[in-house]
Amino acid sequence: MDKTPLLGLSLVELQDITDELAMPKFTAKQIMQWIYQKNVVEINEMTNISKSHRELLSEKYCVGRSMPIEIQTSQDGTEKYLFRTSDGCYIETVYIPDHERATLCVSSQVGCKMNCEFCQTGKQGFNGNLAVADILNQIYTVNTIAVEKNNTALTNIVYMGQGEPLDNYNNVKKSIDILTANYGWAWSPKRITLSTVGLKKTLKNFLQETECHLAISLHFPLHEQRLQYMPAERQFPITEIISLLNQYDWSHQRRLSFEYTMFDGVNDSTLFAKELIKLLGNIPCRVNLIPFHQIEGTDLKPSSMTRITTFRDYLTKRGIYTTVRTSRGQDIQAACGLLSTKKQLENHE
To answer: Looking at the domain assignment, is residue 94 inside a domain?
Structure first.
C-alpha cells in the first residue's frame, strides 16, 4: 500500500491524523516542526515523538521527501534536478545562483496542457498535476542540497518550471501557503513569483488570495498571432486578461511583469513594440524580453541581440520598464522553455 505524504499537510490536517491514531494533541505540532522547520526526511528522525507513535505513524504515512535521481551542472553555475514524483512520473527543477540570490524554478505539472508552439514542455503533452508534496519536495530538497554544498540558500521561488501553475491552482496555492506560513519558512510572498499564460478564473483567485508577484506569458500582442502560437488564447484572450489586471492596484509592492519571447521576423519589429504599448496601456508593469532557445518541432528562430536591444530601447523610451532576461543553463537544457521529461517517461513506460 502506498503511504500518504505528510509534507504538504496543514496543522489542521495533521491534527486529524493524530486524532485518528489516538496520539496526544500536541503531537501534530511536533510533526509540523519536524517537517517544515527541521527538514527531516524520515518519520523515525522525529525523536521527541515516542517510538511506538512513530511506528504507528509510519504504517500509513511517510514524510514525502525524496532525493533527485540526477543533477546536471551548467558552466554558468545553474543546476538542473530531475525528480521522480510520488506517482512515478518525472519533473525537472532549476536552481539559479546569482551572487547573494538563489532562485528556484519550480515545476507544478508533469508536462503541460497549454501546448505553446515554442515550449519544449508543451510539446511533451500533459501527464498529470503534481501533488503538494511533490511541489514542496523540489523546494525543500534543493535548498538542503545547496546549504550542504555551501552554496547560496534559496532566496526566491518562481513557479515557471514545467506546467501551467494556475491549471493546478489548489496544490500550488497550498504550497505557497506553507512557504509563507509561520510554521513553514515564514517567507514574504514578495519572494515568490507565479508565471501563467492567463487562466482567467484561477488567475482571479490567485490575485485575491495571495500577494505574490505575477508574470504573464504574453509573447504576442495581437489576438490572431497569439492564437496561432498559444492555443490558450482561444479560451483566455489576452485582452480579457489585461482587463482583469486593470482592476487591481499595481502601484505598491506587488510586481506585475509580462514575458515576451523574441522570434526572428515574427514579433520582434517596432510594429509589435507599438502594439505591445497599445495593449498594456497605463498599467504599471515591466516587460521581460526573453531570447528564444531553439527547440525541435518548430520553425521559429531566435531574434538577433541587435533586434532585441532595439525593441527594449523603443519600449524604455516610451515609459515601459523593459529588461532582457539573461539565459542561464542553456548548455544543460535548463533555460526558459527547454524543460522536458518526455524521454524519462518514455523510457519507463
So the answer is: yes
Active site residue 92: yes
Q: Residue 292, Cβ neighbours under 10 Å: how many? A: 24
177/285 same-domain check: yes
Q: Which CATH number covers residue 55?
A: 1.10.150.530
Out of 62, 112, 212, 336, the active site residue is 336
Query: 79, 92, 233, 259: which is the annotated catalytic residue?
Result: 92
- The answer on 217 and 131 residing in a single domain is yes
Query: 46, 62, 78: which is the final residue of a domain?
Result: 62
Write the DSSP assignment of 294-341 as a string of letters: --TT----BPPHHHHHHHHHHHHHTT-EEEEPPP-SGGGT-STT----
Model confidence pLDDT, tens digit, residues 230-266: 999 999 999 999 999 999 988 778 999 999 999 999 9
Same domain, 82 and 42: no
Whether residue 92 contacts residue 162, with contact meaning beta carbons closer than 8 Å, is answered with yes
Q: Please report the pLDDT score of residue 15 as a whole number.
A: 95
Q: Vertex 116, ends 110 and 121: CA angle to 5°? A: 30
| CA gyration radius, the chain | 21
Query: The domain containing residue 17 runs over which residues?
Result: 4-62
- What's the pLDDT tens digit per position in 115-166? 999 998 888 999 999 999 999 999 999 999 999 999 999 999 999 999 999 9
pLDDT tens, 276-296? 999 999 999 999 999 998 888
User: Do 139 and 263 share a structural domain?
Assistant: yes
Assess whether 259 carries a catalytic annotation: no
Alpha carbons within 13 A on the beta-carbon side of 124: 26
| Helix ranges restricted to H, 92-197 | 120-124, 132-148, 169-180
Give percent of the chain with pLDDT exceeding 90.
Answer: 87
Q: Which residues are CB-neighbours of 204 under 8 A, at least 6 positions away?
A: 244
Q: Are strands 192-196 and 156-159 parallel, antiparallel or unpaired?
A: parallel
What global pTM score does this model have? 0.95
Question: Does residue 334 surpass a pLDDT of 70?
Answer: no
